[in-house]
Write a structure and sequence with these properties.
Number of helices: 8
Number of strands: 9
Bound molecules: adenosine-5'-triphosphate, magnesium ion
Oligomer: single chain
Shape: globular
Helix content: 25-40%
Strand content: 25-35%
Length: about 250
């Protein structure tokens, strides 16, 4: 019998299309009727060709996009919260404690030091400044960011350095659910191995992961299951979304 007690995320009937209002209302169907469940400590890999909607699905799980249909139930403070119907402040509370997201590219904030960028989510989650800085420093060290860079803003860092700062920021809080969009895309072998370790350590602590991993070895090393997304044709969803006004 399937144990449903440890499910931390239920995605049910998710459908998403984009309507480009500035381009004659062109409709881009992305995915249709996606469902899956995720247990604590499990890693689900999103798999599919470029343009299949992997990043869009991940951003939808993070509450960045309005879905056409479906619910995303997340276990937050012992209750199930539907991200698809949550107000902005509820999504923010969820992101502080429950839901982490590592985008492919770091959003650089001018004049904020690397140490502060990494420590910020832990401070927001309620940790003391000392604890947040110590945890951030340990992660930066593990990810081989030279210490003389920690006091600088990461704007001038290389692509791989910025990606590692982004990963450190994503792992600084022990989130119950972590969403990862190609976290190893521009990393060398040693840093890739460190990221694999970080993911597997988080899983051992009970973190559920949804991730996109183009690298086969990384995928094999961290994923328990794969979810296949096939690219939709316009015809497949045209009838379903006909007449609907969908705003990204
Ligand atoms: N904000 C947006 N507005 C309009 N269309 C979008 C938007 N984001 C994504 N799309 C479209 O949705 C489709 C899926 O894009 P998405 O980035 O999710 O693909 P992906 O599977 O992550 O691809 P890749 O492997 O190349 O990263 C693409 O056709 C893309 O053009
Ligand atoms: Mg993508």
């Amino acid at each position: 019998m399937k144990n449903t007690k440890s499910h931390v995320l239920h995605a049910r009937g998710l459908s998403k299309s984009f309507t480009l209002h500035t381009q004659g209302g062109a409709v881009i169907p992305v995915f249709d009727d996606i469902s899956f469940e995720l247990n604590a400590g499990e890693c689900l890999g999103l798999h599919g060709p470029s343009g299949a909607g992997k990043s869009t699905l991940l951003r939808s799980l993070y509450g960045n996009y309005k879905l056409d249909e479906g619910e995303i139930l997340v276990l937050h403070n012992k209750a199930l919260v539907d991200i698809a119907k949550s107000a902005y402040w509820e999504i923010n509370a969820l992101r502080r404690q429950t839901l982490g997201y590592v985008s492919q590219f770091l959003r650089v904030i001018p004049r904020v030091s690397t140490l502060e960028v990494v420590a910020e989510p832990l401070l927001n989650a309620g940790a003391s400044e000392d604890e947040a800085h110590a945890t951030a420093a340990a992660l930066l060290e593990r990810l081989r960011i030279a210490e003389h860079l920690w006091s600088l803003a990461p704007a001038t860092f290389s692509g791989g350095e910025q990606q590692r700062v982004n990963i450190a920021r994503g792992f600084v809080v022990n989130y119950p659910i972590l969403l990862l969009d190609e976290p190893t895309a521009s990393l060398d072998a040693a840093n890739r191995a460190t990221v694999v370790d970080l993911i597997n350590e988080a899983k051992t602590r009970g973190t559920a992961v949804v991730g996109i991993f183009h690298d086969h070895e990384v995928r094999d090393a961290v994923c328990d299951r794969l979810f296949d997304l096939a690219r939709l044709s316009a015809d497949q969803t045209a009838s379903r979304i006909a007449g609907d006004e969908v705003v990204a």
